[in-house]
Each structure stands twice: as structure tokens, then as C-alpha cells.
Amino acid sequence: MTETNDLAILVVAAGRGSRAGDGLPKQYRPLAGRTLLAHCLASIRRAAPFAKILPVIHEDDHELFRQSLAELEPDAAAGIGAPAHGGATRQESVRAGLEALSADPPGFVLIQDAARPFAGEALVARAIDAARAFGAAVPGLAVTDTIKAVDGSGRIEGTPERAGLRAVQTPQAFRFDLILSAHRSAATAGRQDLTDDAAVAEWAGHPVHVFEGDPGNMKVTTPQDFCVAETRLLGALPDIRMGQGFDVHAFGPGDQVVLGGVAIKHDHGLAGHSDADVLSHAITDALLGALAEGDIGSHFPPSDPQWKGAASKIFLAAAAKKVRARGGMIAHVDATVICERPKVGPHRDAIRESLAAILGISVERVAVKATTTERLGFTGREEGIAAMAVATVRLPL
């Protein structure tokens, strides 16, 4: 394969993923520290760093897409274009993406499902070569199980010869003008029942070839698929590290304190150069410690006036981004707030949700506890609040 700037990759991410169960659309659900979509985009970018990547998303999902993009390394995110809006079906979404590309058409296009996070370099290289050689080609795997054709009642009607069968994957590869024309013709004819882009090309009369797929290029569809995919991804992050953080801020004038990004009414504020979010500071130091990258003061020195009054979620999000930039994930955060007042318990769930959103992880990976010192010491005298945290991260070797 020769690198080319004449290649675009559509990543189709507009579906609702109902078979994955209740919750967010599956492409935005967490999977080993990133969303499924972020894993897909990262794998495609690694496999084809020279290609233009255009995601196709639901019009209601811009914030979810933005959050997924923020989980990528800066170089990978920079090469991804502003998303196009998809339609009610996959076929409509692909056509919308192709129309968006048509203003500056590439020579070839790969069409990838966002639910496939394991597209490797070799598979993408075969797809590009096949597009050049044939104009329309799809990756396929030989069928090893015996296949039965059944009627509506489940009665077997026949046994196809499996030697001629293939299980088809994505990315599917096409000459751009060919697949755009095929999709336009299908839309004009009212055909919205074609289940993949090979079927669209076939319907339009184009021969479609099959090239060698990849057994590891699984599609994440069901809750069980998420478990399998996460196990695979975590296996690629064997370097397990823990970091600890501790911070203290004294009480000062004010009518609220900020803990984990949540403002809590109180008869004092906390004194500090930033917003004095003692909990976020402790977690930030724990993450930096796990990475062996200094402490919060070395990255955001209090002598720098730009951080005066700054929201501490900026520091926490930056530490989380450093983990992702190393190709890692935040596996767990466990934090304890030490104070007599304010009472943390009534705000615990809100704090956990806030921290999870800032860190870009699921709330199940965030633990927040509170304790007192039985009226002993500076916290017991209500002179300030302390917080300590432990963070577990997983990194590639």
C-alpha cells in the first residue's frame, strides 16, 4: 500500500444502538476508559494517519461527540473533520456523509462502523488496495459454522454451501464516485432497505469483491460484546499504577465551598489561589503521581496569575488528558474529604457525577467518602478542609 492524500474515511456513528440495552447510544458508552467511538476513531487514525476522517453523527449528539473527541491524543483529534449529520437509517447516514465529502471529493472512501474499535493497520491497508484494484470491495471472513435457512416458524428450509459464504465486516472500500452515485440512485428509487454499502453498490449494478477480513475486527453490539471488548482493551494496558494525592485549604471569607466541582453552601469559603477545590486538587495530584509527572503546582504554579480564581476542574481535566495522551485509562479514583462541616453525604452523588464527567470516566469508577477527625486538629477546630485521594491508572508498556 502506498500512502495517499486521496482517501477519506467515513465513520458512521449516528445510530441509537438499541441492542446494547438502555442508556446512551452505544458509541458513546465507556469502554476501558474511553468511549467506543473514541476507540474506533483512534484505531482508524493509527491505521491511516494520512486520510481525511469524517464522522457522521446524530444531530442531537454534538456534546457527546465533543467529549469523545477530547479523549483522543491531540494529534489524532486534529485530523478529524467536523461531523456531518446522519439520517434515520444507516443507509441515509452514509449518503449524508458522502454528500458532505462531495464538495471536495476524494478518489476513494472507506466506510467504517463506529461499533468496530479494532480495525488494524493491515486490514485498512488491504481495504485501500482493494478499493484501487476493484472500485468496490468489502472485508469478509469464511464461515466455519454450518448455516441453515429457516422459515418464520423456525423450520429449516435449506442448508447453503458454506464454502461460498462470507461474513462481511467494515471498513468497506469504494471508488468515491461509484459509491456516491449508487447511494444517490438508491435514494431516488426509494430503496432504504439495503443493509450495507456493498448491497447498495450491488443494487446499482456494480460488482463487489471480497478481500480478507480480520477475525479480531469484532463489532460491539450487545452488553456481552462490551465485556469482551473491554477485556481485550485492558489486556493491552498491563502497566497498572497507583498514585496518591493530599491537599489542604484553610477556611476564609465566603458563603460556599467547591468540592469536586460542586458548589456547596457554607458559612465560609476556602482560601486559595484558584477556587480552592481541595478534593479536585488531591485527585489531580494522585493522577500526576501515577504518571510520575510531578504535582499540581509544577503544572499550574500559584505564582502564575492566569490561575487566580480558576476552576479546579481545569487542572483535573488536564491530568486526565495526560493519562489518555499516554494511551492509558483511569481505572478508579478513591477520595476522602476530611472536615467537620459542611456535611458531604447529601452531596456525594452529585460530586461523584461531577468528577466522573470531568475525568471522562463512568461514575462507577469514582468513590467519594467523608470523615471527621473527632474534633481533633485543624479540621476538628473547623479551620479548614483536607482531602486525600488514590488513583489507579492503566498504561501500555
Word description of this protein:
This protein has 397 residues and is of the alpha/beta class. It folds into two domains: 7-235, Alpha-Beta Complex (Spore Coat Polysaccharide Biosynthesis Protein SpsA, Chain A), CATH 3.90.550.10; 239-395, 60s Ribosomal Protein L30, Chain: A (2-Layer Sandwich). Helices cover 33% and strands 25% of the residues. The strands form five sheets. Strands 1, 4, 5, 6, 7, 10, 11 and 12 form an eight-stranded mixed beta sheet that branches. Strands 16-13-19-17-18 form a five-stranded mixed beta sheet. Strands 2-3 form a two-stranded antiparallel ribbon. Strand 17, helix 12 (348-359) and strand 18 (366-371) form a beta-alpha-beta unit. Helix 4 (90-101) packs across helix 6 and helix 9 (278-291) runs parallel beside helix 11 (313-325). The protein is elongated. 43% of the residues are buried.
Distance between the termini: 29 Å
Summing up helix and strand content along with how strands pair, one would put the structural category as alpha/beta
User: CATH superfamily assignment of the largest domain?
Assistant: Spore Coat Polysaccharide Biosynthesis Protein SpsA, Chain A
CATH architectural type of the largest domain: Alpha-Beta Complex
Backbone shape: elongated
Most strands sheet: 8 strands, mixed
**What number is the mean pLDDT?**
94
Find the CATH topology of the largest domain.
Answer: Spore Coat Polysaccharide Biosynthesis Protein SpsA, Chain A
Domain module tally: 2
- The CATH class of the largest domain is identified as Alpha Beta
State which percent range the strand residues make up.
25-35%
Helical segment count: 13
Number of strands: 19
